[in-house]
């Protein structure tokens, strides 16, 4: 398994609404077209209305590379910049989990 967590901070409330729309459109494509994307979850952060946290889990690094190569993901990466003031990315090494097979 290959995973990452990304924290996005939007510029303002209007930017957050635009970002949420972009996320919804992109997420629909991911759900339809990426069987090797195991989890792609987007969360609002309680008490911080401009923050969003993504948790992404892929079958392996090749699945992540395939995700990143999709036209709709590349469009998301380009379009998101207009809405954001910061992006923090942590790559994760899955140790244990429910609903996923952990291979080491």
Automatic annotation (TrEMBL):
Residue ranges of every copy of the ABM domain listed in the record: 2-94
Signal peptide stretch: none
Domain of life: Bacteria
Entries under SUPFAM superfamilies matching the protein: Dimeric alpha+beta barrel
InterPro entries assigned to the protein according to its UniProt record, in alphabetical order: ABM_dom, Dimeric_a/b-barrel
Name the UniProt record assigns to this protein: ABM domain-containing protein
Organism of origin: Streptomyces thermolineatus
UniProt lineage: Bacteria, Bacillati, Actinomycetota, Actinomycetes, Kitasatosporales
